[in-house]
């Protein structure tokens, strides 16, 4: 094993790095042509201009059911002076699509004629020439251009291609790409049961994601099995791929500066490095190179970094090789829900949730870790914060690239505040309903939710704020923090908070009163959290002083982290919701039932989407699903407080 580490030689801004790549591979439309059938051409790029071989229709055709006539013979007909025509010579019955008989140039619809005996018809209006006739070549004229080269064939195009007699469609061959995931920690999902995953093992995902993304832009990718962190092995795999019939090769992982990051040494051994390191985030350590005239990419291992690197470099290069146009994403002006700091000197691809609240489309930032695939799967858009900017203010209107259509974003209810698992049930039920609404929730704590209501950047907030003076939830906080904001408060659920303890309760804890025992170590929540307020309130009620509790000053920030501390043996008990205990197979002693409400500004309360939400939470199916989670009660669900 080598201990030599790579250093980023010369980080380039995104535009410059792209230019270096495109200049080095001036590959526009270089893929050879091949022919495929019209249906198989869908999604492919035309290698040549396509001109029609035949006209469509290739004869004059009746466009309506009725009689074919010579327009001239009908001139002068009116209601007061109807005309009669002889069937067989002056008028011939035919149906939509039939060939027009010789010497006819118009069709009169069947409903506009009267029979006179067996062989004459009466009309009360003249026909004008070519009325209700689809003339030869009306749709497509033989020899005319159907599509220029570089056009992407759509399902609609198949109709025009076949009608125009193009049965062999010239398209560019798909660039063949080999994807080589590297990393000794990677395991194959097909041979690894999820329960058997050991610490240190990571399910290989990127090769699958990239394979589909390459297919989406017109390439064809092959996934190599994962290669261990072994310089010689990776080098051999890359060398074989380049010598074979792949047009492009990429490794995933090992692109940065770790002692086992081999993408750069492999490239240096086999070819020429063009760029190592781009001032973007995620995606910084991407490596661009040339091995024997073929593009080589060292794609960073973090899932979002891999996706961004692919979108910024690989997909555009593939489109160029195919001679296809670039497909910039639509952008829309959005207002961030809070101010967002960003590092100077790097262009950040910030993933955001979007929703239309009042006049504005508001953007809530998602977690920024490049290792979090959900930060991009949950995203509706991407805000690109330029490298010269230290971030964006919450009042700034900025552009976001859209990952979902605007119509879907307008159909989204934005809820901000404390997290609760029943919101997931609600999201699912809302989507299954006739309106197919999306619930987009951001978890910033109860107070964060109230502040979002105050600033008008959400449709509603979820909160469970206990007033220790009165024992009431939320009301006094609303009075205090939202004095000028008329809101309605609707109960979503009552939920159990309780002691999360090890399976089997080895220390025979009975309740909060036991937290003062000398043999028990507690794990606390951070000051200001709803749960901490609750604990302190409860301790005061039973007259147990915090100093008596071992571990009272050890704080965690989430219910799950409290449960993890208990599971790992760092603590014997912590206060949290039942769902967290259940997720880790721990035991739970209910302590109090707390109230979780939805706080809805009057301005939104009457809106159709909110009314659907309020109906949904009172349905039996919603309540049953919530009760089935355990630790919840729906006795007050849907109750409205002014
Ligand atoms: N000292 C420094 N460390 C790191 C830097 C740096 O500048 N200095 N850059 C960080 C950045 S930014 C990124 S991005 C990562 C990417 O580095 P690598 O390309 O070397 O990626 P790995 O270390 O191999 O893997 C990172 C992470 O992703 C997981 N992974 C890798 N491949 C796959 C795959 N095919 N499917 C699923 N997951 C994968 C891997 O297990 C790691 O957890 O480096 C930072 N470090
Ligand atoms: O820049 Mo790395 O690609 O964020 O995680």
From TrEMBL:
<dbReference type="Pfam" id="PF03454">
    <property type="entry name" value="MoeA_C"/>
</dbReference>
<protein>
    <recommendedName>
        <fullName>Molybdopterin molybdenumtransferase</fullName>
        <ecNumber>2.10.1.1</ecNumber>
    </recommendedName>
</protein>
<dbReference type="GO" id="GO:0006777">
    <property type="term" value="P:Mo-molybdopterin cofactor biosynthetic process"/>
</dbReference>
<dbReference type="Pfam" id="PF03453">
    <property type="entry name" value="MoeA_N"/>
</dbReference>
<keyword id="KW-0460">Magnesium</keyword>
<dbReference type="InterPro" id="IPR005110">
    <property type="entry name" value="MoeA_linker/N"/>
</dbReference>
<dbReference type="GO" id="GO:0046872">
    <property type="term" value="F:metal ion binding"/>
</dbReference>
<comment type="function">
    <text>Catalyzes the insertion of molybdate into adenylated molybdopterin with the concomitant release of AMP.</text>
</comment>
<dbReference type="Pfam" id="PF00994">
    <property type="entry name" value="MoCF_biosynth"/>
</dbReference>
<dbReference type="InterPro" id="IPR036425">
    <property type="entry name" value="MoaB/Mog-like_dom_sf"/>
</dbReference>
<keyword id="KW-0479">Metal-binding</keyword>
<comment type="pathway">
    <text>Cofactor biosynthesis; molybdopterin biosynthesis.</text>
</comment>
<dbReference type="Pfam" id="PF12727">
    <property type="entry name" value="PBP_like"/>
</dbReference>
<feature type="domain" description="MoaB/Mog">
    <location>
        <begin position="178"/>
        <end position="320"/>
    </location>
</feature>
<dbReference type="InterPro" id="IPR036688">
    <property type="entry name" value="MoeA_C_domain_IV_sf"/>
</dbReference>
<dbReference type="InterPro" id="IPR038987">
    <property type="entry name" value="MoeA-like"/>
</dbReference>
<comment type="similarity">
    <text>Belongs to the MoeA family.</text>
</comment>
<keyword id="KW-0500">Molybdenum</keyword>
<keyword id="KW-0501">Molybdenum cofactor biosynthesis</keyword>
<dbReference type="GO" id="GO:0061599">
    <property type="term" value="F:molybdopterin molybdotransferase activity"/>
</dbReference>
<dbReference type="InterPro" id="IPR036135">
    <property type="entry name" value="MoeA_linker/N_sf"/>
</dbReference>
<dbReference type="InterPro" id="IPR001453">
    <property type="entry name" value="MoaB/Mog_dom"/>
</dbReference>
<dbReference type="GO" id="GO:0005829">
    <property type="term" value="C:cytosol"/>
</dbReference>
<dbReference type="InterPro" id="IPR024370">
    <property type="entry name" value="PBP_domain"/>
</dbReference>
<dbReference type="InterPro" id="IPR005111">
    <property type="entry name" value="MoeA_C_domain_IV"/>
</dbReference>
<keyword id="KW-0808">Transferase</keyword>
């Amino acid at each position: 094993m080598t201990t030599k580490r790579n250093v980023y030689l010369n980080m380039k801004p995104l535009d410059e790095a792209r230019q270096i790549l495109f200049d080095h591979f001036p590959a526009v439309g270089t893929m050879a042509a091949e022919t495929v059938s019209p249906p198989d051409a869908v999604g492919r790029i035309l290698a040549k201009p396509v001109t029609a071989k035949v006209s469509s229709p290739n004869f004059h055709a009746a466009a309506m059911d009725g009689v074919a006539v010579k327009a001239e013979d009908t001139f002068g007909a009116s209601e007061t002076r109807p005309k009669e025509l002889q069937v067989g010579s002056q008028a011939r019955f035919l149906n939509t699509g039939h060939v027009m008989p010789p010497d006819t140039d118009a069709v009169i619809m069947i409903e506009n004629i009267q029979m006179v005996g067996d062989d004459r018809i009466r009309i009360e209006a003249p026909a004008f020439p070519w009325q209700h006739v689809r003339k030869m070549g009306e749709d497509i004229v033989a020899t005319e251009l159907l599509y220029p080269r570089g056009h992407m064939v759509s399902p609609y195009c198949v109709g025009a291609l076949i009608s125009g007699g193009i049965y062999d469609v010239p398209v560019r061959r798909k660039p063949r790409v080999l994807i080589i995931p590297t990393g000794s920690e990677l395991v194959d999902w097909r041979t690894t049961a999820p329960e058997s995953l050991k610490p240190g093992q990571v399910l290989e995902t990127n090769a699958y994601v990239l394979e589909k993304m390459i297919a989406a832009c017109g390439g064809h990718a092959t996934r190599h099995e994962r290669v261990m962190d072994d310089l010689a092995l990776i080098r051999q795999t890359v060398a074989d791929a380049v010598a074979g019939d792949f047009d492009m090769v990429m490794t995933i992982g090992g692109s940065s500066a770790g002692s086992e990051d081999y993408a750069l040494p492999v490239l240096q051994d086999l070819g020429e490095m063009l760029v190592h390191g781009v001032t973007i985030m995620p995606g910084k350590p991407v490596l661009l190179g040339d091995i024997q005239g073929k593009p080589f990419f060292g794609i960073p291992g973090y899932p979002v970094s891999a996706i961004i690197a692919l979108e910024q470099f690989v997909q555009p290069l593939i489109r160029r090789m195919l001679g296809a146009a670039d497909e910039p994403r639509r952008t829309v002006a959005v207002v961030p829900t809070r101010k967002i700091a960003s590092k100077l000197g790097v262009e950040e691809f910030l993933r955001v949730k979007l929703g239309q609240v009042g006049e504005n489309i508001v953007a809530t930032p998602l977690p920024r870790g490049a290792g979090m695939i959900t930060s991009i799967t949950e995203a509706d858009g991407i805000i690109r914060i330029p490298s010269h900017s230290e971030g964006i203010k919450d009042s700034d209107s900025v552009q976001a690239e859209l990952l979902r259509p605007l119509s879907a974003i307008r159909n989204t209810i934005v809820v901000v505040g404390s997290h609760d698992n029943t919101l997931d049930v609600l999201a699912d039920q809302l989507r299954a309903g006739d309106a197919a609404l999306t619930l987009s929730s951001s978890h910033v704590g109860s107070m964060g939710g109230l502040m979002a209501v105050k600033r008008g950047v959400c449709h509603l907030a979820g909160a469970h704020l206990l007033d220790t003076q009165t024992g009431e939830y939320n009301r006094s906080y609303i009075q205090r923090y939202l004095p000028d904001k008329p809101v309605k408060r609707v109960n979503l659920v009552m939920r159990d908070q309780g002691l999360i303890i090890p399976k089997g309760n080895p220390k025979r804890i009975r309740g909060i009163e036991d937290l003062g025992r000398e043999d028990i170590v507690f794990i606390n929540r951070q000051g200001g959290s709803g749960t901490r307020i609750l604990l302190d309130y409860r301790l005061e009620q039973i007259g147990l002083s915090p100093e008596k509790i071992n571990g009272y000053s050890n704080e965690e920030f989430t219910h799950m982290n409290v449960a993890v501390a208990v599971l790992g043996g760092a603590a014997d008990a912590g206060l949290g919701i039942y769902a967290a205990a259940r997720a880790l197979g721990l035991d739970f002693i209910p302590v109090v039932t707390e109230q979780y409400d939805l706080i809805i500004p009057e301005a939104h309360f009457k809106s159709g989407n909110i009314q659907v939400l309020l109906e949904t939470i009172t349905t039996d199916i919603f309540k049953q699903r919530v009760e089935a989670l355990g630790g919840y009660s729906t006795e007050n669900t849907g109750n409205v407080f002014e």
